[in-house]
Each structure stands twice: as C-alpha cells, then as structure tokens.
Design a protein that fits this description.
- The protein is mainly α and about 450 residues long.
- The protein has helices at about 5, 10-20, 20-25, 30-45, 50-65, 70, 80-90, 105-140, 160-185, 205-215, 220-225, 230-255, 285-310, 320-345, 350-360, 365-375, 380-390, 395-410, 420-425, 435-450, and strands spanning about 145-150, 155-160, 190, 215-220, 265, 345-350.
- It has a two-stranded antiparallel sheet. The chain has a two-stranded parallel sheet with strand order 3-4. Strands 5-6 form a two-stranded antiparallel sheet.
- A hairpin with a 2-residue loop joins strand 1 (about 145-150) and strand 2 (about 155-160).
- Helix 8 (about 105-140) runs antiparallel to helix 20 (about 435-450).
C-alpha cells in the first residue's frame, strides 16, 4: 500500500522479511485505541464528519473483535498499521483513506508501544505486590525459625528465616517503587500527533489527544516523540535487574533444597524426576528462572545494541527492538508468579536449620562483641583471642569458651544459646523477633495502604 506508488510492487518474500506483523500482535488493541483517538481529533477539527468517524470506528471495532481481518494480510503488509488500513479499505471502501490525514506510523507505533508497556508494567507491579504479601505471611510463620546467614556461602552469623524473607520483600518493594516511577514519569507520555518527525500542518490538539488516551502528559518535541526509545531502555534495564535479583533468590532455593542443605522442600509441582535415577527430585522451575535471567540479559543487550548506533529520528531498526521488550516483560511476569508460588508452598526443615546453627560457630562474632563490651577489651584483640580458641577447639564454641577462660582469663558469664544472641540484637534491621514482628506489621500496613 505505502510503497507501491513510489517503488512499484515488491516481492512477497522481501515484504515478509521486513514485516513486523508477528510482533505487532502484542500491540493490536493499543494501535486501534490510538487510531480511534486520532479519528476523534480529526472530527473535533472538522476535518472529517461525525458520520465518517463513526463508520471508521465501527469498522475498527469489528477488526478488534476479529483480528483475522488484519492478520490475513500478514504476508502483504509491512506492519499492523498498513494491514489495518488495507482491512479498513476492504471493509468500508474509499472512506478508509481519510484515516491517514495528520498522522504517521511513527507517532502511532510509539504511542501503541507506550500504552502496552504501561499495561505490562502495571501487571508486573500487581505480581510484585502479591509476592510481597506472600513473603510477609511466610515471614510471620518463621519469626523464631533460627538459621545461619551466609557470606561467601559459608555459615556466617545466626539469623531467622523471617529475617531472610524480609530481605527479599524489601528488595521487591524497591523494584516496585522504581517501576511505579518509570510507568508514571517515563512511559506515560503521549507521542500521538507528532507525525513522522516534525509534526503536521494539520491542526491537532496533541494535549487533548493525550488526555483521551489516558496518558498523563504529552511529549513536546516531535523528534523525541517519534524517534526516542529511551523509555524502553530504561524499563528493560530495570526489569533485567529485577530478573537477576529473582535469579539469586532462585539460586538460594536450589541450594537449600539439596540433600546437603535440606533446609526446604519445594512443592512437587516445581520439581521433575530423572529419566534414569528414580530418587532424584530436580528443582526445575528455579533452574529455568535462573536461565531466563541470562536470556533477559541477552534481550536487554540486544535492545541497547540496536539503538546505540542509530542516528536520531525513526529508523526501521527500532522495529526490531520491541520483540525483545515483550520477551522481557513476559519472562519477568512469569518468573514472579513462579517464585511466589514456590515460596508460598515450600516446606521448611526447622530441625535441619537449627542443627546447622548449633554445629557451626555462627555466634563467634557475637561472643567476641559481648566479651569486648563486658570486659573492656578492644574488639580486635578479642577477635584474635576467639580465632585462636576456635582453631584449638576445632570450631567447638563451648570448648573455645573454656580455652578463653583458661588461657586468657575471661571469666565473665557468656551464654551459648543462639536465641539469646538473636534477641540481643536490637538495632534496626536485625533478626530480633520483636523487631521482626513490628517490621512485618509496618510493612503489611504499607502494602495494604497502596
């Protein structure tokens, strides 16, 4: 349709090569929404009649109900915009050509992408809130579930499972805040009416069109409106970071579900069996989630690489960007659902977690701090004394305390029950049960208030 007047008829296989019809399925609704607003504005400006507007809108609604009316042209159309115009002309004849006044595919595709991305991010935010709610509920169950914390994957200090779960919840809140900001301040801007790059001589109220689209503001500069994809790069980068964070959590769950750790048991629906080893239970959903973090990094790299070498203004390279964006939003949305389900239904091996705490000197730092405070000995000196005692006692805490008394004259009363040291931690962010309970309540109220 578009090229024939200037370039003549093209071979179908080349049109198919250039076409974005497969990817455009994602934005069908938003493309038609933008067209309806455009038609409304043409009518407001008395460039088309109300009857003409109604006739075209009715045909667009029919196309929306039956998308095959446009996708049957996928081998002949460059994109969904051309396919819709072909379908309209087939449906209502010459009046369909009125739709082209004062518009370009450039401003319309940018509008449709923004509208669809806004919806996708909103759905991701809903999934994040559901995940956060699950994490708070699970944390409430495990306020007193003692476990080791880890640095370098070595047992570090005592903590609780609730403390760990609240770390994840706080991470998710941070991403939620970022995505809300991106949706409101970066994505929710209207390019509609900007034309191909420098607008149109046709009088159009772009602010009114933005309002009818339900977008908060209009992108003023028409070059930016049609040619910039910064909003995609920003959104895809944050979503990639979110997926990488989810991958780290999935890795924790994979490690904790091994026989060697045996801290948790994932729901059976998240496991698969071996084709040869009948005893195996493999944490396949978490493994896929980890792998998809790698995929998303690739998708985001593709987005950046495509855009980085382009001159300003619209280039057809940008057509190839959006498929990577939709892959990212789909993977992130699915990953949050998967990890939320796994977390909500996982079984916790309390005894095994406590056993690891008791079999490892995870309270060594706390004991050293207590001795330093009670005895007035510089902490670094106590640290060296404790390290020596642990080496001599083969990491046995009770024996290390005996050595401290015998060799260093430390006779102050030093508890060895892990729970006591967890309770001694009164600072903000600690695993102290009373503190954890108040944090859960506070964060639940904040989540409910949103």
């Amino acid at each position: 349709m578009y090229r024939r007047g200037l370039l003549g008829k093209h071979e179908e296989w080349l049109i198919k090569y250039e076409s974005s019809m497969e990817e455009d399925i994602e934005i069908t609704t938003e493309v038609i929404t933008a067209l309806k607003v455009h038609l409304e504005e043409l009518m407001e400006q008395k460039l088309i009649s109300r009857e003409q507007r109604d006739k075209i809108v009715k045909a667009l609604d029919e196309i929306l109900r039956n998308p095959n009316k446009i996708f049957k042209f996928k081998d002949y159309a460059e994109d969904i915009h051309e396919a819709i115009e072909i379908a309209l002309e087939e449906e209502i004849g010459e009046e369909a050509k009125l739709i082209g006044l004062g518009k370009s595919r450039n401003d319309h595709v940018a509008t449709a992408i923004r509208l669809h991305l806004k919806k996708e991010i909103s759905e991701i935010i809903k999934e994040l809130r559901k995940f956060r709610k699950t994490l708070l509920e699970k944390a409430e169950e495990h306020v007193y579930t003692i476990m080791p914390s880890f640095t370098h994957l070595q047992s570090a200090q005592p903590t609780t499972l609730a403390h760990y779960l609240l770390y994840i919840e706080e991470e998710m809140e941070g991403y939620e805040d970022l995505l809300i900001y991106i949706n409101n301040k970066v994505v929710d801007e209207s390019p509609l009416g900007a034309g191909a790059i420098s607008g149109s001589i046709v009088t159009i109220d772009r602010n009114r069109m933005a309002e009818k689209l339900g977008m908060s503001k209009t992108i003023v500069n028409t070059i930016r409106a049609t040619g910039s994809r910064s909003f995609i790069m920003i959104a895809s980068s944050i979503l990639t970071a979110l997926q990488v964070t989810l991958s780290r959590i999935a890795e924790d769950l994979v490690i904790w579900s091994t026989n060697q750790f045996n801290y948790i048991q994932l729901p059976e629906s998240h496991l698969s069996t071996s084709s040869i080893m009948p005893h195996k239970k493999n944490p396949v959903t978490m493994e896929i989630l980890r792998a998809q973090a790698g995929e998303i990094i690739g998708e985001n790299t593709a987005i950046m690489t495509i855009i980085k070498g382009l001159p300003s203004g619209y280039n057809l390279d940008l057509q190839e960007v959006t498929k990577h964006l939709w892959n990212i939003t789909k993977i992130v949305k699915d990953s949050i659902k998967v990890i939320e389900d796994a977390t909500s239904r996982m079984k916790v091996n309390y005894r095994r977690m406590r056993q690891d705490v008791e079999n490892n000197p995870v309270i060594a730092a706390e004991i050293a701090e207590l001795i330093s405070v009670k005895c007035g000995i510089p902490y670094r000196k106590v640290h060296q004394m404790m390290a020596q005692a642990l080496r001599e006692s083969d990491n046995d805490i009770q024996e290390a305390l005996n050595i401290l008394k015998r060799d260093f004259g430390i006779h102050t009363n030093i508890p060895i029950r892990v729970q006591e040291y967890v309770k001694l931690k009164k600072n903000l962010g600690s695993p102290n049960p009373d503190h954890i309970k108040s944090i859960i309540e506070e964060r639940r109220k904040n989540l409910t208030a949103i």
